[in-house]
Amino acid sequence: MAQSNPAEALANIYRTPELWEKITFTFVCLLIYRVGAHVTVPGVDVIALTDFFQNQSGKGGLLGLYDLFVGGGLSRATVFALGIMPYISASIFSQIAGAVFPTVDKLQKEEEGRKKITQWTRYATIVLAAVQAWGFALFTESLQGAVATPGLGFKVQMALVLTCGAIFVMWLGEQITERGLGNGASLIIFFSIVERFWPGIFQTFKFVSTGAVGLFSLVVLGLVMVAVVAGVVAMTLAARRVAIQIPQRTMARGRMREAARNFIPLRLNSAGVMPIIFASSVIVVPGAVAQFSGNAMAQGVAEYLAPGTWLWYVLQFGLILFFTYFYTSIIFNPIDLAENLKKQGGFVPGVKPGAKTAEYIDEVVTRITFPGALFLTAIALLPQLIAQWVNVPFQFGGTSLLIVVGVALDTMAQLQQHLLLRKYDGFMKKGRVRFRGRQTMGGF
After folding, report:
1. Which residues contact 294 (CB under 8 A, 6 or more apart)?
2. Cα(193)–Cα(400) distance, integer angstroms
3. What span, in angstroms and rounded, lies between the C-alpha atoms of 312 and 322?
4. What is the Cα–Cα distance from 69 to 83, expressed in whole angstroms?
5. Reduced to 3 states, what is the DSSP secondary structure of residue 264?
6. pLDDT digit string (tens) for 366-391?
7. pLDDT score of 440
8. Which helix (H) or strand (E) is 218 found in, with range?
9. Are residues 419 and 9 in contact, defined by beta-carbon separation less than 8 angstroms?
10. Angle at Cα 186 formed by Cα 185 and Cα 189, nearest 5°?
């Protein structure tokens, strides 16, 4: 891959006023978000709350997964504790509704319809944020010593503050998408996750200094991390190219000339990180029930499903495989793709246009989804396997790494397009990221 001069590429960014303004605006919005993510809600003992989350670390709790996406805001009970997640959840519901209800699907294909769906998504975000904020207020109050003055006043105050914070973060994300560079919701989660990488790296070196991790294990761990990042990048960009031909007309006589050859790129991992999130959400239900109910039978089931047990590995594999196919079927519609290709006069060589093309594309997607699901399973189980090997907490991998790589590649692709449109050399002269695919979960 031939690289252009990075210094020259950076200079080209500075010489492009519009692009520089977008980057500056995005940076300011993200800075505001990170500042708000460190302002604690009044009346909460942060130390008691943080101790609880640290004790739950590595147990696969849903709160821990949520806390990862909001950059630790939940464990610190900040005003942005809910982060962008209510908006992401509402967007996912809208996406699923489009696949289930024909009326919503029709609206998604019209400009005015998309505006209505966007407005409904905002209303759903407010409702979800209010419910989650009230639930977190009840949870915080249930922790011994976490609240100075428990009662109705505290619960109303926390629910109101967290709901307003979630609405403000939603607005920030939309502003970044509209006026900045990249997808706002994705970038907010990206920086929340990256912020927590550095403490993990320092903690690893601390384990080395104390002798908990040997030098040889550290070297092997570093090589594994490099290999994992390279694998994630490769699989994120990997696509099965289906050859198509689209006839073209000459401007002079209107005659058909030789069909232009092109490709439809079908991603090996169309579902993104959603299968891992769905699987993690399902598998922590027994533990959550056991924790809040105190039932002996529920606690026994939770022990069998604890992270690291053979049953946990089997269920994770099965759930991720199932949700990969399930979510891919929701976000990818081969019938629409075949119809759009037919309207353009295009066709897949050797396949009849229309229904036969849809069947062919569906068969290809079904085949390539399986290796994508195996890849997601390996990435999801990797942190737990390494943690058992070195006997220390290890969080590099899984959902967080997929999100970071996916958002970074998407943002770099947009930056590359801005530079090329203004006839500047981008960061890469060859091997450009040409395919970005259909985005899910706000851009992942």
Report:
1. none
2. 6
3. 15
4. 8
5. strand
6. 999 999 899 888 888 877 777 777 66
7. 43
8. helix 215-237
9. yes
10. 90
Residue predicted with more confidence, 80 or 298: 80
Strands (E), 130-249: 239-249
Question: What pLDDT, on a 0 to 100 scale, did the predictor assign at position 392?
Answer: 59
**Taking a C-beta distance cutoff of 8 angstroms, is the pair 317, 382 a contact?**
no
Q: How many residues are there in the chain?
A: 444
- SS3 of 290-323: HHHHCCHHHHHHHHHCCCCCHHHHHHHHHHHHHH
Spans of all domains in the chain: 1-196
Structural contact between residues 59 and 44, judged by C-beta atoms closer than 8 angstroms: no
Confidence tier at 1 by pLDDT (50, 70, 90): very low
Task: At 43, list the tokens.
Answer: 């009346």
Average pLDDT over residues 347-368: 89
| Measured CA angle at 278 (ends 139, 193), to 5 deg | 70
- Classify 278 as helix, strand or coil: helix
- Hunting for tokens 């991720």 — which residue is that? 320
| 204, 43 Cβ separation under 8 angstroms | no
Q: Which residue has the higher pLDDT, 299 or 44?
A: 44
Q: Specify the CATH architecture of the domain 1-196.
A: Orthogonal Bundle (1.10)
DSSP structure string for 164-175: HHHHHHHHHHHH
Token pair, residue 413, equals: 């692709």
Mean pLDDT of 185-209: 78
- The residues facing 239 across adjacent strands are 267
Residue for token pair 């939770």: 302
Res 439 pLDDT > 90: no
Q: How far apart are CA 93 and CA 165, in angstroms?
A: 21
Structure-model confidence comparison of residues 422 and 441, the more confident one:
422
Name which of 115, 118, 131, 72 is nearest 91 in CA terms: 118
Residue with tokens 């695919």: 437
Closest listed residue to residue 77, CA positions, set 67, 85, 69 = 67
Q: Distance from first CA to last CA of the chain, Å, rounded?
A: 25
Give the whole-angstrom CA distance, residue 334 versus residue 352: 14
pLDDT > 80? residue 110? yes
> Is the predicted pLDDT of residue 438 greater than 80, yes or no?
no
